[in-house]
UniProtKB/TrEMBL annotation:
Residues 14-206 form the Serine aminopeptidase S33 domain. It holds the Pfam family Hydrolase_4. It comes from the Eukaryota. Coiled coil: none annotated. It comes from Setaria viridis. This is Serine aminopeptidase S33 domain-containing protein. InterPro entries: AB_hydrolase_fold (IPR029058), Hydrolase_4 (IPR022742), MAG_DAG_Lipase (IPR051044).
Length: 214
Protein backbone atom coordinates (compact mmCIF):
# COMPACT_ATOMS: atom_id res chain seq x y z
CA UNK A 1 0.00 0.00 0.00
CA UNK A 2 1.56 3.29 -1.13
CA UNK A 3 0.27 6.39 0.68
CA UNK A 4 0.99 9.78 -0.87
CA UNK A 5 2.28 12.55 1.41
CA UNK A 6 2.96 16.24 0.89
CA UNK A 7 4.39 19.15 2.85
CA UNK A 8 4.76 22.92 2.94
CA UNK A 9 7.55 24.56 4.94
CA UNK A 10 8.49 28.14 5.76
CA UNK A 11 11.63 29.25 3.96
CA UNK A 12 14.90 30.24 5.62
CA UNK A 13 13.92 29.64 9.25
CA UNK A 14 12.70 26.99 11.66
CA UNK A 15 8.91 26.54 11.86
CA UNK A 16 6.83 27.84 14.77
CA UNK A 17 5.08 24.47 15.09
CA UNK A 18 3.92 21.42 13.12
CA UNK A 19 0.43 21.22 11.61
CA UNK A 20 -0.95 17.97 10.20
CA UNK A 21 -3.77 18.07 7.64
CA UNK A 22 -6.64 15.57 7.51
CA UNK A 23 -8.71 15.99 4.34
CA UNK A 24 -12.37 15.23 3.82
CA UNK A 25 -14.13 12.29 2.17
CA UNK A 26 -13.44 11.99 -1.59
CA UNK A 27 -10.84 14.79 -1.38
CA UNK A 28 -7.03 14.85 -1.18
CA UNK A 29 -4.26 17.04 0.24
CA UNK A 30 -1.79 18.29 -2.34
CA UNK A 31 -4.31 20.14 -4.55
CA UNK A 32 -7.54 20.68 -2.62
CA UNK A 33 -5.72 21.73 0.58
CA UNK A 34 -2.82 23.47 -1.14
CA UNK A 35 -4.18 26.93 -0.28
CA UNK A 36 -4.40 26.03 3.41
CA UNK A 37 -0.92 24.51 3.43
CA UNK A 38 0.62 27.45 1.59
CA UNK A 39 -0.94 30.09 3.86
CA UNK A 40 0.10 28.24 7.00
CA UNK A 41 3.66 27.85 5.69
CA UNK A 42 3.81 31.59 4.93
CA UNK A 43 2.65 32.16 8.51
CA UNK A 44 5.66 30.17 9.75
CA UNK A 45 4.32 26.63 10.26
CA UNK A 46 5.57 23.34 8.83
CA UNK A 47 2.55 21.60 7.31
CA UNK A 48 2.27 17.89 6.46
CA UNK A 49 -0.58 15.99 4.85
CA UNK A 50 -1.38 12.49 3.63
CA UNK A 51 -3.93 11.09 1.18
CA UNK A 52 -5.88 8.26 2.82
CA UNK A 53 -6.10 4.82 1.24
CA UNK A 54 -8.51 5.03 -1.70
CA UNK A 55 -8.14 8.80 -1.90
CA UNK A 56 -6.12 11.18 -4.04
CA UNK A 57 -2.75 9.86 -5.15
CA UNK A 58 -2.61 6.98 -2.66
CA UNK A 59 -3.16 3.32 -3.53
CA UNK A 60 -6.55 1.65 -3.26
CA UNK A 61 -9.90 1.71 -5.02
CA UNK A 62 -10.94 5.34 -5.43
CA UNK A 63 -13.54 6.47 -2.92
CA UNK A 64 -13.44 3.16 -1.05
CA UNK A 65 -12.97 3.04 2.74
CA UNK A 66 -12.50 -0.50 4.03
CA UNK A 67 -12.01 0.58 7.64
CA UNK A 68 -12.25 4.04 9.18
CA UNK A 69 -9.95 2.94 11.98
CA UNK A 70 -7.30 1.98 9.42
CA UNK A 71 -7.34 5.56 8.13
CA UNK A 72 -6.80 6.84 11.67
CA UNK A 73 -3.95 4.39 12.28
CA UNK A 74 -2.27 5.25 8.97
CA UNK A 75 -2.39 8.96 9.84
CA UNK A 76 -1.09 8.35 13.35
CA UNK A 77 1.88 6.32 12.09
CA UNK A 78 2.84 8.86 9.42
CA UNK A 79 2.36 11.94 11.60
CA UNK A 80 4.37 10.34 14.42
CA UNK A 81 7.18 9.50 11.99
CA UNK A 82 7.39 13.19 11.02
CA UNK A 83 7.40 14.31 14.65
CA UNK A 84 10.31 11.96 15.41
CA UNK A 85 12.61 13.65 12.89
CA UNK A 86 15.56 15.35 14.55
CA UNK A 87 14.64 18.82 13.28
CA UNK A 88 11.10 18.47 14.69
CA UNK A 89 11.84 16.88 18.07
CA UNK A 90 10.95 19.93 20.17
CA UNK A 91 8.16 21.32 17.99
CA UNK A 92 4.55 21.61 19.14
CA UNK A 93 2.05 19.45 17.21
CA UNK A 94 -1.36 20.46 15.95
CA UNK A 95 -4.03 18.69 13.88
CA UNK A 96 -6.31 20.31 11.30
CA UNK A 97 -9.26 18.39 9.87
CA UNK A 98 -11.95 19.29 7.37
CA UNK A 99 -15.32 17.49 7.24
CA UNK A 100 -14.54 13.75 7.49
CA UNK A 101 -11.01 14.81 8.38
CA UNK A 102 -12.48 16.41 11.50
CA UNK A 103 -13.66 12.97 12.61
CA UNK A 104 -10.18 11.60 11.87
CA UNK A 105 -8.69 14.36 14.05
CA UNK A 106 -11.03 13.61 16.95
CA UNK A 107 -10.15 9.90 16.80
CA UNK A 108 -6.42 10.65 16.53
CA UNK A 109 -6.67 12.84 19.61
CA UNK A 110 -8.61 10.14 21.46
CA UNK A 111 -5.94 7.52 20.68
CA UNK A 112 -3.05 9.72 21.90
CA UNK A 113 -4.56 12.61 23.91
CA UNK A 114 -1.27 13.76 25.43
CA UNK A 115 0.65 13.63 22.15
CA UNK A 116 -1.07 16.63 20.52
CA UNK A 117 -0.94 20.28 21.57
CA UNK A 118 -4.23 21.21 19.93
CA UNK A 119 -6.59 20.76 17.00
CA UNK A 120 -8.52 22.83 14.47
CA UNK A 121 -11.85 21.47 13.20
CA UNK A 122 -13.40 22.85 10.01
CA UNK A 123 -17.04 21.75 9.53
CA UNK A 124 -16.24 18.39 11.17
CA UNK A 125 -18.24 15.22 10.63
CA UNK A 126 -19.23 14.66 14.24
CA UNK A 127 -23.03 14.29 14.47
CA UNK A 128 -25.88 12.93 12.36
CA UNK A 129 -29.09 14.94 12.21
CA UNK A 130 -31.79 13.00 14.08
CA UNK A 131 -34.23 12.80 11.18
CA UNK A 132 -31.48 11.38 8.94
CA UNK A 133 -30.54 8.50 11.22
CA UNK A 134 -31.63 5.19 9.70
CA UNK A 135 -33.63 2.65 11.69
CA UNK A 136 -31.53 0.02 13.53
CA UNK A 137 -32.94 -2.64 11.18
CA UNK A 138 -31.68 -0.66 8.19
CA UNK A 139 -28.25 -0.38 9.83
CA UNK A 140 -28.19 -4.14 10.36
CA UNK A 141 -29.05 -4.74 6.69
CA UNK A 142 -26.36 -2.28 5.55
CA UNK A 143 -23.82 -4.03 7.74
CA UNK A 144 -24.56 -7.39 6.14
CA UNK A 145 -24.67 -6.03 2.59
CA UNK A 146 -21.40 -4.14 3.04
CA UNK A 147 -19.68 -7.48 3.61
CA UNK A 148 -21.21 -9.01 0.47
CA UNK A 149 -21.04 -6.15 -2.06
CA UNK A 150 -18.71 -3.64 -0.34
CA UNK A 151 -17.55 -1.72 -3.40
CA UNK A 152 -20.95 -1.25 -5.07
CA UNK A 153 -21.86 2.38 -5.67
CA UNK A 154 -25.52 2.16 -4.74
CA UNK A 155 -25.92 4.80 -2.04
CA UNK A 156 -27.92 7.74 -3.44
CA UNK A 157 -26.63 11.20 -2.62
CA UNK A 158 -26.93 14.82 -3.65
CA UNK A 159 -24.04 16.62 -5.34
CA UNK A 160 -21.61 16.70 -2.41
CA UNK A 161 -19.53 19.41 -4.08
CA UNK A 162 -22.46 21.84 -4.24
CA UNK A 163 -23.39 21.13 -0.62
CA UNK A 164 -19.87 21.32 0.83
CA UNK A 165 -18.29 24.17 -1.16
CA UNK A 166 -19.78 27.66 -1.33
CA UNK A 167 -17.17 29.24 -3.60
CA UNK A 168 -18.03 28.62 -7.26
CA UNK A 169 -14.36 28.98 -8.23
CA UNK A 170 -13.33 26.30 -5.75
CA UNK A 171 -16.20 24.07 -6.87
CA UNK A 172 -14.87 24.12 -10.42
CA UNK A 173 -11.35 23.42 -9.20
CA UNK A 174 -12.57 20.33 -7.31
CA UNK A 175 -14.70 19.17 -10.25
CA UNK A 176 -11.66 19.43 -12.52
CA UNK A 177 -9.42 17.63 -10.04
CA UNK A 178 -9.43 14.00 -11.18
CA UNK A 179 -7.87 12.96 -7.88
CA UNK A 180 -11.15 13.82 -6.13
CA UNK A 181 -13.76 11.05 -6.18
CA UNK A 182 -17.09 12.17 -7.60
CA UNK A 183 -19.12 8.96 -7.87
CA UNK A 184 -21.83 7.69 -5.55
CA UNK A 185 -20.54 6.49 -2.16
CA UNK A 186 -19.64 2.81 -2.13
CA UNK A 187 -21.65 0.62 0.22
CA UNK A 188 -18.84 -0.21 2.64
CA UNK A 189 -17.66 3.39 2.57
CA UNK A 190 -21.11 4.66 3.52
CA UNK A 191 -21.37 2.15 6.35
CA UNK A 192 -17.91 3.05 7.72
CA UNK A 193 -18.69 6.78 7.60
CA UNK A 194 -22.01 6.25 9.35
CA UNK A 195 -20.50 4.13 12.13
CA UNK A 196 -17.61 6.57 12.56
CA UNK A 197 -20.02 9.50 12.91
CA UNK A 198 -22.03 7.56 15.51
CA UNK A 199 -18.83 6.81 17.42
CA UNK A 200 -17.83 10.48 17.36
CA UNK A 201 -21.31 11.59 18.43
CA UNK A 202 -21.40 9.14 21.33
CA UNK A 203 -18.00 10.32 22.56
CA UNK A 204 -18.30 13.99 21.67
CA UNK A 205 -18.32 15.21 25.26
CA UNK A 206 -15.04 13.36 25.85
CA UNK A 207 -13.52 14.82 22.68
CA UNK A 208 -14.54 18.39 23.59
CA UNK A 209 -13.00 17.95 27.03
CA UNK A 210 -9.73 16.61 25.63
CA UNK A 211 -9.42 19.34 23.01
CA UNK A 212 -10.19 22.12 25.50
CA UNK A 213 -7.79 20.95 28.23
CA UNK A 214 -4.47 22.90 28.29
Amino acid sequence: MNLFTCQWRPSNYDPKALIFLCHGYAMECSISMRGTGTRLAHAGFAVHGMDYEGHGKSSGLQGYITSFNDIVVDCLKYFASVCEKVEYKNQRRFLLGESMGGAVVLMLHRKEPTYWDGAILVAPMCKIVEDMKPHPIVISILSKLSNVIPTWRIIPNEDIIDRAIKSEEWREEVRNNHYCYKGKPRLKTGYELFMASLDIENNLDKAVYLLSTP
